[in-house]
């Protein structure tokens, strides 16, 4: 039985008052919207129309809303029962862009469905792999998920999108102020105000961005001209194509996404249980199935592939509210808002510095959680090398990617992300270094 | 409790100060004009030249004195401004002051590109604030050989009705959709003027002014056969668009030609090996349909869009 940590204001089974629940849900959906810019970028890149952009954004929201609700349920073998919302996955962005680039939205949809099915299969086997994931490796996964958010968070914080661009001073000021407000509320405030630290930061961030000219009048015109209510369906829902040659890429991305969700679900367990010792693999398996349903639903509906949101899990921890009713509220609101283009517009307009400040804020919590999980069962010489070697090579891949230019084609997928590389390295090393322990045990 | 309140007071004061300070920075109208560019460094250069043109329109030649101040916004390690009149006489050049007063209209770059004529061409448009991009090879202090420079040029009319072309360039500008579109539209206009066959002959026999960075102009017939192929200029075997872009089972050429049956221009996206790294990279091509000499021609040019910095 999990023990509710003292710092939680509303624990997993608690039911916050309706108004509080609404604002907590609202806070989550703002954060879930932080990556809705990805479908906007993707559709613009392939030359899609404004209507297509609106449709893909709305469908992504609806799929993520469904995923968030399914994740919070514990229905048969589906759902972890935690607040672990889905958002449009940055993880899938490159693969989705490649598919859309080659065969338009029908191919992107087909490959997203395939990725969802791959994760569904993986989720059913993950329960049998408990021996591979002792606390130091699960902590490492959480830590690497946090590190994977750094490039996006830091670049948005400084207002830089492409190499060679100058730091946008206005962005930096707004992002710093937004971050300061969120951190300030968390550090200095007492009681329930902490619940709304991100919402308050975002509100001020939007105001400051407008004052700094970071929200343009063209964007506002688009918003004003958008209809209040509209059907998000655009074109034929049956227009789906598939390419076998793209499947390996999508399998890798899907497994990486599943590993990331694995880390997020462990963080959910940790946040909700003061006496957490090791992952509940059955619950994680059910959570991954819920995530797979969300990815498949994104493809079926015509949205961009989704992923569980590490930042939302960290937000729950930061605000001290992990009640699963928040997930139902956030998921329901996200689905509902998918039919309101004007409101969707406000979410997709999220200015760069606000996005950057939120990502930096939530990443801080994830980094500390990762370290806490790694160190939760003490330190020994084996763990030192398992974690140390994995982190060293993961960083070498991020800092010096050209080092691995000569990697044989078959091993390439391993070097596509530092999360995959560090996880595979840590699991392998842990098994090799545990051989001696096993032999000693057998002798005794 | 009192300590908490003081904390809030400080945050509110900081917020008010920031809103006040930043609102003056909002230049909404110009920002909207800049929305057609993807990259911030391109927008920064456009803002600089647009502001310089506004100053010339307000102060006339007196603005040149401000343009020449070292370590100012107009003249620093990153940018300098140049000004020419319509015939091609240099009116202002802070880096090479000896050029001032000289007729530079016949000046050409290392590949025989008439750089100043390309600049003054922008001023021949009837619009009082016409602008455009010019690409040429220019001496770069950081490199041994001339390197691609992209310059934004804007027409400015002084209070005394004198027409100048003010511009500034950078070696680090990334190719934009607008650049490619401008080059293809310019080629299409020239084809319509000269006739299809004459234009193709000119492209094959003379150096073209359309090529910039890694982007080359190609011309195809209605069936997708290359009539001007920048990759194989001396090759007699005609390559065909339909046989080229087949990757992951998707025939991009077929999709493009089908789309061009109902549209006059299309953007096509595909994956293609990068000339420098050899790695497969996303590429965008703009194809424009031109009717000339009772035939249909397709003029096309492509570029590799930059990858966001946060995307590995």
Write up this protein.
The complex is a heterodimer of chains A (444) and B (312). By secondary structure, chain A is mainly alpha-helical. Chain A has one domain. Chain A contains 16 helices and 2 strands. Chain B has a 5-stranded antiparallel β-sheet. The chains are: A mainly alpha (444), B alpha+beta (312). Chains A and B meet through helix 4, helix 5, helix 6 and helix 7 of A and helix 1, helix 2, helix 3 and strand 10 of B.
Structure at a glance:
The complex is a heterodimer of chains A (444) and B (312). Chain A has 16 helices and two strands. Chain A has 444 residues and is mainly α.
List keywords for this structure.
heterodimer; A: 444 residues; mainly alpha; 16 helices; 2 strands; B: 312 residues; alpha+beta; five-stranded antiparallel beta sheet; 9 helices; globular
Please give the structural blueprint.
The complex is a heterodimer of chains A (444) and B (312).
Chain A: H1 18-32, H2 37-45, H3 50-72, E1 86-88, H4 93-125, H5 135-158, H6 169-188, H7 197-211, H8 217-225, H9 247-272, H10 281-301, E2 306-308, H11 310-319, H12 324-337, H13 341-348, H14 352-375, H15 381-399, H16 418-443
Antiparallel strand pairs in A: 1-2
Helix pairs in contact in A: 1-12, 2-3, 2-4, 3-10, 3-12, 4-9, 4-10, 5-9, 5-14, 5-15, 5-16, 6-7, 6-14, 8-13, 9-10, 9-11, 11-14, 15-16
Chain B: H1 2-23, H2 28-34, H3 40-59, H4 63-67, E1 82-85, E2 90-92, H5 115-123, E3 131-138, E4 147-157, E5 163-170, H6 177-194, H7 196-205, E6 218-221, E7 226-228, H8 241-244, E8 246-247, E9 250-251, H9 252-260, E10 265-273, E11 280-292, E12 295-303
């Amino acid at each position: 039985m999990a023990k509710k940590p003292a710092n939680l204001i509303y624990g997993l089974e608690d039911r916050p008052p309706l108004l509080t629940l609404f604002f907590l849900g609202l806070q989550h959906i703002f954060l879930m919207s932080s990556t809705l810019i990805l479908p906007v970028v993707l559709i613009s890149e392939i030359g899609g129309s404004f209507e297509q952009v609106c449709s893909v954004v709305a469908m992504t929201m609806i799929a993520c809303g469904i995923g968030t609700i399914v994740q919070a349920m514990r229905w048969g073998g589906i759902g972890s029962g935690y607040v672990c919302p889905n958002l449009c996955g940055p993880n899938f962005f490159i693969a989705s862009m490649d598919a859309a680039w080659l065969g338009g939205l029908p191919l992107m949809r087909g490959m997203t469905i395939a990725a969802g099915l791959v994760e569904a299969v993986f989720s059913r086997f993950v329960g049998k792999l408990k021996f591979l994931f002792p606390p130091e490796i699960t902590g490492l996964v959480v830590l690497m998920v946090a590190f994977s958010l750094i490039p996006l968070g830091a670049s948005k914080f400084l207002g830089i999108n492409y190499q060679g661009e100058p730091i946008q001073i206005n962005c930096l000021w707004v992002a710093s102020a937004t971050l300061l407000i969120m951190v300030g509320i968390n550090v200095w405030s007492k009681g329930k105000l902490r619940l709304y630290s991100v919402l308050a930061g975002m509100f001020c961030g939007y105001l400051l961005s407008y004052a700094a000219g970071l929200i343009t009048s063209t964007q506002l015109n688009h918003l004003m001209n958008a209809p209040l209510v509209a059907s998000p369906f655009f074109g034929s829902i049956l227009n789906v194509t598939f390419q076998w040659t793209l499947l390996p890429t999508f399998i890798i991305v899907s497994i990486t996404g599943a590993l990331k969700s694995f880390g997020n679900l462990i963080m959910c367990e940790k946040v909700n249980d003061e006496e957490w010792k090791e992952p509940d693999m059955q619950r994680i398996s059910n959570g991954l199935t819920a995530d797979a349903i969300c990815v498949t639903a994104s493809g079926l509906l015509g949205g961009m592939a989704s992923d569980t949101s590490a930042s939302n899990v960290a937000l729950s921890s930061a605000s001290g509210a992990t009640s699963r009713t928040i997930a139902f509220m956030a998921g329901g609101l996200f689905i509902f808002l998918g039919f309101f283009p004007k409101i969707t517009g406000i979410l997709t307009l999220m200015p760069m510095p606000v996005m950057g400040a939120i990502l930096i804020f939530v990443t801080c919590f994830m980094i500390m959680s990762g370290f806490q999980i790694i160190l939760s069962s003490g330190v020994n010489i084996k763990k030192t090398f398992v974690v140390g070697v994995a982190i060293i090579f993961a960083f070498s891949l991020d800092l010096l990617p050209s080092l691995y230019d000569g990697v044989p084609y078959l091993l390439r997928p391993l070097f596509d992300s530092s999360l995959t590389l560090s996880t595979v390295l840590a699991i392998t090393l842990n098994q090799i270094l545990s051989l001696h322990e096993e032999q000693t045990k057998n002798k005794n | 409790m009192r300590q908490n309140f003081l904390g809030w007071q400080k945050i509110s004061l900081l917020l008010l100060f920031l809103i006040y300070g930043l609102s003056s920075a909002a230049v909404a109208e110009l920002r909207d004009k800049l929305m057609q560019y993807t990259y911030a460094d391109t927008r920064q250069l456009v803002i600089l030249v647009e502001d310089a043109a506004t100053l010339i329109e307000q102060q006339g030649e007196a603005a040149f004195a401000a343009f020449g101040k070292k370590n100012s916004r107009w003249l620093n390690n990153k940018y300098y401004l140049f000004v020419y009149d319509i015939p091609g006489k240099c009116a202002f050049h802070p880096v090479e002051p000896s050029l001032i007063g000289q007729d530079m209209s016949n000046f050409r770059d290392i590949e025989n590109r008439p750089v100043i004529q390309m600049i003054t061409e922008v001023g021949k448009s009837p619009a009082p604030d016409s602008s455009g991009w010019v690409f040429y090879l220019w001496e770069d202090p950081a490199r041994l050989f001339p390197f691609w420079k992209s310059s934004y040029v804007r027409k400015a009319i002084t209070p005394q009705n004198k027409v100048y072309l003010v511009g500034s360039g950078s070696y680090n500008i990334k190719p934009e959709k607008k650049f490619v579109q401008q080059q293809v539209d310019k080629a299409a206009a020239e084809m319509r003027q000269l006739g299809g066959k004459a234009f193709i002959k000119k492209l094959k026999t003379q150096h073209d002014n359309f090529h910039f960075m890694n982007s080359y102009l190609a011309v195809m017939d209605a069936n997708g056969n290359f009539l001007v192929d920048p990759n194989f200029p001396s090759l007699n075997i005609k390559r065909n668009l339909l046989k080229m872009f087949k990757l992951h089972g998707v025939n991009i050429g077929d999709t493009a030609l089908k789309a061009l049956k109902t549209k006059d221009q299309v953007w096509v996206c595909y994956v293609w090996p990068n000339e420098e790294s050899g790695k497969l990279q996303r590429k965008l091509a703009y194809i424009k349909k031109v009717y000339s000499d009772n035939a249909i021609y397709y003029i096309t040019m492509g570029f590799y869009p930059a990858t966001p910095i946060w995307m590995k």
